[in-house]
Amino acid sequence: MQVKVVLVDVNPKMVQAWRSTFEENPEVEIVQGSMLEQQVSAWVSPTNSAGRMDGGLDLVIKNALGGPIEKKVQSEIGALFHGAMPVGHATCVPTGKPVPGYLISTPTMIASSEDISDTLNVALACAAAFQAVHMQNAKLPGSVRSIALPGLGANTGRVPVEICADLMWTGYSLFRRREFDDFKAMRVALEEELGDLGPSSTSGKKKVAAAPPMSKANGNGHDASANADFDDSDDDDEVGSDEDFDDTE
């Protein structure tokens, strides 16, 4: 089953980076705007390992869907990951709403406000979100027919938008080409393309160069290594108006 993918963010530089990186993927819809406006089966929210929806896009989504959604996410994390979901994994919980029917939560970092710009966590988080789609559709065929993702790690995580776009492309490409039984097999496949994915927390981490996706480096798009400097002013957060934040973590 072909799953429709929407990339949506309030940051115009994130949107432009996606348009450049995904220029050969016209099937991907790219939108500058609010996650809350996306009429899809599942919204994706970048989160922390505990699933605390207390800031950024997580908080915006909790306000839109209601407080119980956080309890559902944390309950799932408790059941599957003993309360701490590693980077490279994701949960998919029903919202109780017609749209979106599901919320996919994928951590880009362990704690809140980590700088993940020297990691490949964006690729892990993006691939995990898509893996959650595969797993949900395996349990209930056709339950997720469309999905909307924001820029992962491009705000608090301080990942330059060009790098974010390229790493999300890698996750998307893997989703289109392969299916996996679990997150472990997904990570192995991702490492085949990107090399060592490094640790998933900044605690005692080593520097991990954000290498360009394999096929992008071979000429099918711009090289992630040619990224612009991160500019904190690029992120036009709209939490005060209950609109989209560029990303939670």
Give an overview in words:
There is one protein chain. A six-stranded mixed sheet has the order 2-1-6-3-5-4, with helices on both faces. The chain is globular and about 35 Å long. 35% of the residues lie in helices and 12% in strands. Helix 4 (121-139) runs parallel beside helix 5 and helix 4 (121-139) packs antiparallel against helix 6. The protein has one domain (4-222): Leucine Aminopeptidase, subunit E, domain 1. With 249 residues, it is α/β, with parallel strands linked by helices.
Primary descriptors:
about 250 residues, alpha/beta, Leucine Aminopeptidase, subunit E, domain 1, six-stranded mixed beta sheet, 7 helices, globular, disordered C terminus
Summarize the structure.
This protein is of the alpha/beta class. It has helices spanning 12-21, 56-65, 68-81, 121-139, 161-177, 183-194, 214-217, and strands at residues 4-9, 29-32, 42-47, 91-94, 102-107, 146-149.
How would the blueprint of this fold be written?
Blueprint: E1 4-9, H1 12-21, E2 29-32, E3 42-47, H2 56-65, H3 68-81, E4 91-94, E5 102-107, H4 121-139, E6 146-149, H5 161-177, H6 183-194, H7 214-217
Parallel strand pairs: 1-2, 1-6, 3-5, 3-6
Antiparallel strand pairs: 4-5
- Low-pLDDT stretches are 200-215, 217-249
N/C terminus separation? 31 Å
Shape label: globular
Going across the major beta sheet, what is the strand order? 2-1-6-3-5-4
Helix/strand-derived category reads alpha/beta
Q: Figure out the total of helices.
A: 7
Order of helices and strands: EHEEHHEEHEHHH
